[in-house]
Design goal:
471 residues; alpha/beta; globular; two-stranded antiparallel sheet
């Protein structure tokens, strides 16, 4: 039975409820009256439940689909403005004991070199990332009790935070590691992480068990209930995601929103971020085995419907996607992207991209500076801001501001400050010109005169060599 506040995975992600939702959506995909009423509700910016959003995703009416896309754009602007947050993944180790059939790190893959970074190697990787201009990282690691225990992850986080190289500093470390215990989530919280990220991969239990035949990750319930344990451990910013293409996308969409509803109903705060990766080529992975891959137009509509359904959450797209697809996704709801990413272990300290330890193929291979300039040419404000984490605006405190559309009062000036730091320390001449234009363009949008004067003063201080201001 479906029970949104249950602590059992099979009850808050109830298969029967999803099946009924999909049947309801199919029955009403051309119901213009119902779809119009759902869109009127969505226009209020308070979100939709999984059944309402599933009707929009199933909709086949061209005029209504156009309205859905336009509404997603408007909601994105209302909540997040023109800011786009930048981050980079840092792969620590590809040792893994799981048998995930879609990931080249699976334990039975004997062709991939296994690599685990030492703390000295992590320092070198972090300095390379700092020299690009990055301020926030998402650390990634395979699951292995001997090679990648929690002690190694904690030591690595401490190492990352300790490195001050030239004007560089990693101000926030987000963590994407395997499901673990409440006690270990408490350790991660105490280590000062930002968001704990864990992709469900698929919410379809039968498919999940087939895709994860061996290893700790094969336990569907333990994996699906991980965010509950993270919240119990004090981590109030968590990031959800599925790997689109493993199962029927409408099933995954409904399950993803049900998970968000569960966190909101149970803990009073929904996901801080939702990621939307699609399955893509990788070593030792046969894409022909995955018949549910989705086309670009479908992918774009999924992004739009997620943005409408959970307007408060940040949405992330990686370098799996092409520059063209990422531009389209930014317009429809994405608020965070990676830039200059390497998906191999030790990839940032080598001039040539190492391809033998990559987790997935990178489509967008541009440098961070190229991505920064591209974003500004599209009219966005690139941001390296980590102020909310460090000012305690996390969990329900962040959500309260975001839902009231007040978070921009902090975010825009903070974005402009971090952009100015990037321009001063790392940008190419062409990117500097574009960045100064963006700062001048967006300064008037800081409407509070005291805040605007403070911002102007701090921008001058950054030119004089001071760093790390925040509202």
């Amino acid at each position: 039975m479906y029970h949104v506040t249950s602590r059992k995975a099979e009850e808050f992600i109830d298969h029967g409820e999803i099946q009924e939702t999909l049947a309801y959506a199919d029955a009403h995909k051309e119901d213009a009256v119902l779809i119009s009423s759902i869109l009127r509700k969505a226009k209020e910016g308070k979100g939709l439940d999984h059944r309402e959003a599933s009707v929009l995703l199933a909709c086949t009416l061209p005029d209504k689909n156009e309205e859905i896309l336009n509404m997603a754009k408007k909601i994105k602007e209302d909540y997040y403005g023109n800011r786009i947050v930048l981050f980079a993944p840092l792969y620590l180790s590809n040792y893994c004991i799981n048998g995930c059939t879609y990931c080249p790190y699976h334990g039975k893959n004997k062709t991939i070199p296994r690599v685990k970074l030492t703390q000295d190697q992590i320092r070198a990787e972090v300095m390379a990332l700092q020299d690009m201009g990055h301020k926030r990282l998402a650390i990634e690691s395979g699951e292995h009790p001997i090679y990648n225990p929690i002690a190694y992850i904690l030591e690595s986080i401490d190492t990352i935070y300790s490195i001050k190289h030239k004007n560089g500093a990693i101000r926030r470390v987000n963590v994407n590691i395997a499901a673990t215990t409440v006690e270990e989530y408490k350790m991660l919280h105490d280590a000062g992480i930002g968001t704990y990220i864990l992709f469900q991969e698929t919410y379809h239990k039968e498919s999940y068990e087939q895709l994860h035949p061996t290893g700790p990750k094969s336990d569907y319930a333990y994996h699906t209930e991980a965010m509950d344990r993270a919240m119990e451990g004090g981590i109030d910013d968590v990031g959800l995601g599925v790997l689109f293409g493993l199962e029927k996308y409408r099933y995954e969409f409904a399950g993803l929103l049900m998970h968000a509803e569960h966190l909101e109903a149970t803990f009073g705060v929904g996901p801080h971020t939702i990621s939307v990766p699609r399955i893509c080529p990788a070593e030792d992975i046969d894409l022909n085995a995955f018949t549910d891959a989705i086309a670009d137009d479908t992918f774009a509509k999924i992004i739009a419907c997620i943005r409408i359904a959970v307007p408060y959450t940040g949405m992330i797209i990686s370098t799996r996607e092409s520059a063209k697809m990422r531009a389209r996704a930014l317009d429809l709801g994405i608020s965070q992207i990676s830039g200059g990413s390497r998906t191999s272990v030790g990839g940032y300290t080598t001039e040539e991209r190492p391809e033998d330890t990559v987790q997935f193929d990178v489509s967008d291979r541009r440098s961070l500076d190229e991505v920064m300039k591209w974003l500004m040419e599209l009219g966005y404000v690139p941001s390296f801001c980590t102020a909310c984490y460090r000012e305690g605006r996390t969990g329900d405190r962040f959500m309260a501001l975001c839902k009231a559309k007040q978070i921009q009062n902090c975010c825009l000036p903070n974005a402009l400050l971090t952009l100015k730091e990037y321009l001063s320390d790392y940008a190419s001449p062409a990117t500097q010109i574009e960045g100064e234009r963006i700062i001048k363009q967006f300064m008037p949008q800081v409407t509070n005169p005291v805040a605007r004067d403070t911002l102007a003063n701090r921008l001058t201080l950054i030119e004089q060599g001071e760093r790390d201001f925040r509202f």
